[in-house]
Amino acid sequence: MADDTAGGAAAGSGDGVRWLFADQLGPHFLDSTSQRAVLVESTRVFARRTYHRRKAHLVLSAMRHRAAELGERAVLVQAATYREGLALAREQLTDAERAAGLSVCDPTSRAARRFVRGLDGVEVLPARGWAVTEAQFAHWAGRKGQPGQPRLLMEDFYREVRKHHHLLLEGDGSPLGGTWNYDHDNREPAPKAPTLEEAAGVAEPWWPHEDDVDAQVREDLDRMVRDEGVTFVGEDGPRRFAVTRREALANLRHFLTHRLEAFGPYEDAMLAQDRWMAHSLMSVPLNLGLVHPVEVAERAEAAHREQGVRLASAEGFVRQVVGWREYVWHLYWHLGEDFERANELGAREPLPRWFTDLDADGEVRAACLSDVLGTVREEGWAHHIPRLMVLGGYALARGWDPQELTAWFHTRFVDGYAWVMAANTIGMSQHADGGVVATKPYWSGGAYVDRMSDYCKRCPYDPKKRLGEDACPFTGGYWAFTARHEERLAANRRTSRAVSGLHRLPDADAVVAQEADRGSSAP
Ligand SMILES: Cc1cc2nc3c(=O)[nH]c(=O)nc-3n(C[C@H](O)[C@H](O)[C@H](O)COP(=O)(O)OP(=O)(O)OC[C@H]3O[C@@H](n4cnc5c(N)ncnc54)[C@H](O)[C@@H]3O)c2cc1C
Ligand code: SF4
């Protein structure tokens, strides 16, 4: 990669007061240990959309903890809007500080970028907290995007990032262990035991201790609901995710020492009694900007080199953090705003209520969906495969509107941010881009869920059945989706076999009619 101003570098003017958004809370968003900071809590953000209560809690808790850490260096204000908040904050600055103006690192959504550029007296600095800059990505993508050049692939990008930051490399620059990707050693089916602790002695995740700041946040959220007409979705409960840098590093250390070993093999597996499996729970602190992704990857590399954690697990984790996460961030900007409106499959069905309210009334009988929605209701989180293959897969098969689904993922998950949505939801999960991010749609029948989880054995449906009372809605949905998009799937080498399979079914028409009947009702 050409330009060497890595995302973590402090590239600002160093003068004046820094305005910190709620996802810019790590030390790398300030230029010095004496710089002053402004933080604005905007209540209208929560009034505009129905967020998960846990997400609102994490964001407010993180901002208030950061302000407390900075002490007198921080000006924390509460206001309806950012504009009003900034005006209030300015009143608390000295004349010299007001005269020097504010600076802000480029924020992470299009709306926020437009907003900061429209403000007087605010200097906008390059974004921070990324492994490579937007200019570096554009340079790489420009080379790839030329006619006759291969398409953009995460795997190619990831190797560039590894080389750029000397991550998991041998002395001669070749990949550690001789290969760039250890997927073939990872991603095993679900173990037979009910939890990873029983299957492989995996320790439970690190949990934070709540403090007075959390108690105050809880009170304030209750007040917003009671007096200000704000509505949240999901259940409240003990805070599960790190909101300070100290907590983030404690969580990371615990994960690397006690859980990373099992991350690779069980990365894709799901167990009804083990929602966290061997995942890191780092998306929240990473997305709040508390830790830098390269720092996280370097610590994972050290866990392999110094603590002997298996390379396949360390590599698999590093690929998520500086490969997928970074790629998704850059695609948000690279693919542009129109990408977010894409609906190549013409999916127009509205999201049903049982889905939007996270099955609060317990209408869903399908064990996989019921459990995953319950986990989201309780935690505002689920790991990657429940998001992609259970929630996203069901939406895809039912033809739900991809933009509505994007808004749902954005608001229902504790780690949801605008930039994560485009590639993950529009692209990977819903194939609404027609194949820009992923070469084929991720849709599957009950056989996949059965292999990767222990859900099916406790479900009233049968993953092998496509027709009848106990026909699995994923299996039936798989064939209905295949029939609906037959032409497109037949034209793609990677999906044409599904169409041949459909043609061999003696009861294809009956399955399609059954699924049309089932529609979006609670399965
Ligand atoms: C439909 C869909 C929606 C998603 N929405 C979000 C979201 O709103 N916010 C979010 O951070 N992630 C999202 N992801 C990616 C991924 O599911 C979560 O990052 C992960 O499950 C968080 O749990 P963890 O921290 O334990 O992750 P781990 O499994 O431990 O992975 C390590 C880290 O890798 C990063 N990562 C891995 N894959 C991705 C990815 N595809 N995109 C971005 N980061 C990735 C995350 O920062 C994560 O913390 C989504 C994936 C899908 C398929
Ligand atoms: S049988 Fe079908 S609906 Fe039931 S858990 Fe398995 S995949 Fe899910």
Write structural notes for this entry:
The protein is mainly alpha-helical. It has 25 helices and seven strands. It has a five-stranded parallel beta sheet, sandwiched between helices. It is globular, with a radius of gyration of 23 Å. Iron/sulfur cluster (SF4) binds next to helix 17, helix 21 and helix 22. Iron/sulfur cluster binds at residues 366-368, 446, 449-450, 455-456, 459, 461, 463, 472-474.
Quick summary of this structure?
49% of the residues lie in helices and 5% in strands.
Integer-rounded radius of gyration: 23 Å
Average pLDDT score: 94
What ligands does this structure carry?
A: flavin-adenine dinucleotide, iron/sulfur cluster
Placed side by side, the strands forming the largest sheet appear as 4-2-1-5-6
Biggest sheet descriptor: 5 strands, parallel
What is the tally of helical segments?
Answer: 25
Instruction: Classify the secondary structure makeup into a structural class.
Output: mainly alpha
Shape verdict: globular
Low-confidence stretches: 2-14
Helix content: 40-55%
Distance between the termini: 49 Å
Instruction: Report the oligomer.
Output: single chain
Q: Tell how many strands the DSSP assignment holds.
A: 7
Strand content: 5-15%
